[in-house]
């Protein structure tokens, strides 16, 4: 039989590991290893690339049957192709809705999430034991592991504190400045070259943060802002405290992300890193709540099992907080299927979801400046994510490979 020769163009990617690591948000991280497979750092975006079945051009029967199969399953193929984006979008919606409802239940949030982390820690330990991983690997820098866990834990605790001090849209906007913080930290620590998109995104983020924070030195009460929002934030000091906590949350998460990359370079499994983060966060929550129970002057902070921990609202909030493990798993599935920059942009939809929930279900509406600030931060994330995606496409190499069939 005559030889048939075909040339196939195979695309390989040299993605920057820190781009992928930038999606390891400790508030959305799952318990399983997302980086055990090299494909975690070497993926194509479903927006520009989709799998194509390779068939022999001379095999008419296969071509005909393949076309029929493609027509019958076209919708399913598109869903599968964009499954990473769908997973990320659903995860962002679930995470935002659960936080929005928990905030309205008027419970002590740190107590709720302490129980959540106890459950999550148990699941994580069972998973590590099942996989026969070492909880304390001998080949790692213990100080580096502790530093990463501590910074990530501080970021998580600050997020839950900020949830009590700020409306959810403003908290989400300030927290997602972590994308810009991460890019700047990578420039400093890994000495990467600064680019124009990073400069533009940083400026937009700074303006957006100012619009959301609305410091009295720049924005006086005579400014035309929504009166209902002014009533909800009677104490300017409390608002500034919430803004500071939210920004510190974003910065701490960014530091955790950068240190996470250092640990991944030492071949430490992500599930082990996650377990140390959960353990550190649990101890931090216990210490924080013990302090409040002992020194707090308000009844809400006092330790009272019957009046605080056996109420319907607290039970509902604990169930919702525990169910947040579902969007965590969905986020990890999206990271496995989609380009990290796309996942980052889609995750930022939490800002839009929180704005919609705030302005539909609550009497306290977001003012115009806060909405403008949210739009600016979202724009900066789109710019940075699109730039990273473009760089990834530029770094792809096409190598022709000849396959001979007899």
UniProtKB/TrEMBL annotation:
InterPro entries per the UniProt record, alphabetical: EamA_dom, EmrE-like
Pfam families in alphabetical order: EamA (PF00892)
SUPFAM superfamilies named among the record's database cross-references: Multidrug resistance efflux transporter EmrE
Keyword Ion transport in record: no
Entry keyword set: Membrane, Transmembrane, Transmembrane helix
Transmembrane segments: 84-102, 108-128, 140-162, 174-191, 198-220, 240-260, 272-294, 314-330, 342-362, 368-386
EamA domain: residues covered: 84-212, 241-384
Superkingdom, natural source: Eukaryota
Annotated protein name in UniProt: EamA domain-containing protein
Source taxonomy: Eukaryota, Metazoa, Spiralia, Gnathifera, Rotifera
An example Gene Ontology CC term for this record: membrane
Keyword Transport applies: no
């Amino acid at each position: 039989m005559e030889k048939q020769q075909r040339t196939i163009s195979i695309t390989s990617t040299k993605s920057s590991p820190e781009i992928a690591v930038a999606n390891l948000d400790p508030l959305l991280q799952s318990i399983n290893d997302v980086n055990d497979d090299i494909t975690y750092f070497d993926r194509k975006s479903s927006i520009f690339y989709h799998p194509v079945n390779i068939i022999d051009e001379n095999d008419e029967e296969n071509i005909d049957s393949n076309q029929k199969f493609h027509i019958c399953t076209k919708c399913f193929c598109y869903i599968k192709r964009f499954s990473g984006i769908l997973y990320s979008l659903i995860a962002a919606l679930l995470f935002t809705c659960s936080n929005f409802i928990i905030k309205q239940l008027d419970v002590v949030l740190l107590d709720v999430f302490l129980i959540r982390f106890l459950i999550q820690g148990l699941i994580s330990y069972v998973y590590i034991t099942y996989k026969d991983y070492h909880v304390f690997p001998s080949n790692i820098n213990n100080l580096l592991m502790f530093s990463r866990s501590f910074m990530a834990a501080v970021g998580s605790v600050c997020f839950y504190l900020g949830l009590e001090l700020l409306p959810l849209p403003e908290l989400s906007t300030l927290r997602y400045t972590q994308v810009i913080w991460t890019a700047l930290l990578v420039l400093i620590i890994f000495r990467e070259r600064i680019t124009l998109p990073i400069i533009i995104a940083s400026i937009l983020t700074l303006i957006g943060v100012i619009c959301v924070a609305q410091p009295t030195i720049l924005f006086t009460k005579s400014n035309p802002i929504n009166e209902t929002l002014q009533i909800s934030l009677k104490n300017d000091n409390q608002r500034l405290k919430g803004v500071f906590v939210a920004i510190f949350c974003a910065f701490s998460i960014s530091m955790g992300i950068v240190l996470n990359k250092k640990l991944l370079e030492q071949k430490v499994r992500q599930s082990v890193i996650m377990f140390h983060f959960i353990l550190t966060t649990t101890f931090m929550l216990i210490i924080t709540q013990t302090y409040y129970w002992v020194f707090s002057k308000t009844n809400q902070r006092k330790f009272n099992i019957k009046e605080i921990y056996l109420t319907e609202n607290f039970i509902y909030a604990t169930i919702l907080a525990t169910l947040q493990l579902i969007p965590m798993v969905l986020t990890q599935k999206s990271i496995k299927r989609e380009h990290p920059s796309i996942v980052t942009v889609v995750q930022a939809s939490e800002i839009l979801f929180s704005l919609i929930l705030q302005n539909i279900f609550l009497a306290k509406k977001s003012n115009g400046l806060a909405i403008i600030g949210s739009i600016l931060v979202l724009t900066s994330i789109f710019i940075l994510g699109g730039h990273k995606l473009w760089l990834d496409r530029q770094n792809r190499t096409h190598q022709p490979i000849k396959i001979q069939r007899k």
